[in-house]
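Changelog-linked ticket: zinc ion example.
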Amino acid sequence: MASEEDKRRLRERFRKQLRHAVSHEEELRRRQAAKARAAERIDRDEPGWRGEPDAETFAKMRRGGRARRHRELGGAAPPGLPRATVTAVHQGRIELDFAPARVAQRLLLDPDCRLVVGDEVLCEGTDGPRRAVALLPRRTRLARPDPGNPHRELLLAANVDVAVIVAAVRDPPLRPGLIDRFLLALQRGGVAPLLCVNKVDLLDARGLAELAATLAPYAGLDVPAVLCSAAAGLGLGELRERLRARTCVFVGHSGVGKSSLLNALDPAGARAVAAVHAGSGQGRHTTAGSRLCDLGDGTRVIDTPGIRAFGFERLLLAELRAAFPDLAAFASGCRFADCTHAHEPGCAVREAVAAGRLAAARLGSWLRLLGEVDDGER
Ligand code: GDP
Ligand code: ZN
């Protein structure tokens, strides 16, 4: 028979457990609510002004600080306001490029302004400090998840037309898994990919044949690829041609040759950037590591620290499926509709690989990325 003391201890433990269970439930509810709120916020943040603003709305936007900062203005812009591209963002200050005059201007802006490089804005004021009064709709966005809040994104750049995914054939080795990751992240923001495989000077004929086999699946995905050597000056003409009159970023593992390629494409680039900084009245150091470089004929390269570290931590299963249409083509033959092609019996995708109708590397890449999909998603 349990003593009074034992019973008391039991009761105490039970109470503690109950308390824990309740608080766990509360915690879950709290998290769910936070998630819903975050999703709502992201919805509200989505760019794209629906309908044209009338004069009254526009006047309100100019008066209201918050509206001015967070709304985007599309359709017919009020006449007469100069349009400019954001070339650098600092604490409380941005630099703008008023094409065709390629001179950066200092603007005074509210400290919590959330503009990014590549944003297009309308400005008012001609003398002294100008004010960005409206943000034009973003055509594309380059973003990564916020490590501090998985339900939010950190916008890195806007209106990027092409992201050049740079990989090296060697030093560091080419990793198709990494290329696939980039493709997925780009798909998220509507940025077109261009695969640039650098350092081909390091390959012999056999290596080149192997490389062609590795890249074959990307042709099937309509991802254009350019073989380059920044060192030997190979393929640079084609790369330059594909980027003509577009705004681009170079992404890829460090050491693959991004800087070498940029320098090869535009040997005068460093000088042009220095001149723009001088025009802003600020020392070069103030914009170190963040620049929008104009290569001429409307070709522009956005290069910021965030973009060099571009990647993503959180994957959605739907995004993953959309990024592998070549697997999906076989998946309709799988026994289970929600087959992950990892271990299920009757998997038509694994059969296709065994029969040589689908590259094993694609399935490998799918499985690697599948391991990174949020558990709650599957
Ligand atoms: P980033 O980190 O991507 O900007 O890469 P870098 O441009 O700094 O290049 C990394 C290293 O690769 C440097 O030592 C370059 O000289 C070298 N490199 C760049 N392009 C080529 C190339 O086409 N062929 C060879 N062999 N080496 C290259
Ligand atoms: Zn399957």
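Closing comment: Example verified and attached. The chain has three domains: 55-135, 151-303, 317-377. The CA atoms of residues 48 and 370 lie 32 Å apart.
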